[in-house]
Design goal:
alpha+beta; four-stranded mixed beta sheet; 30% helix
Length: 106
Amino acid sequence: MYTIEIEKECSCFKKSGFENNMTFESREDMYNKARVLECLMNQQFCMTHFFEAVDYGDKIVIHSSVRPEDDEDDEDIEDARELVKKSGVTIGFDASQVPPKESGSN
């Protein structure tokens, strides 16, 4: 059995409806779901924290750290939230979907 654990459940995580301590039959499923969660959390949450999935073998822990304060000198740099909104890219994971044959997955 393989597990994804969220180290610290911030308020955004609690509101998200995501589940903590998810278990998977295969390591590949655990790894793929953890990467999707890591991306979604970094893109859709309030930008207070930075999330990083760390692989410990049969468990992946998604750690969080406080993002550094923005420097006022960087006013010409777009906010990450705006960049994500403009990108139009949606990242998702649907465990009910079967990958196409010869797609490189097991």
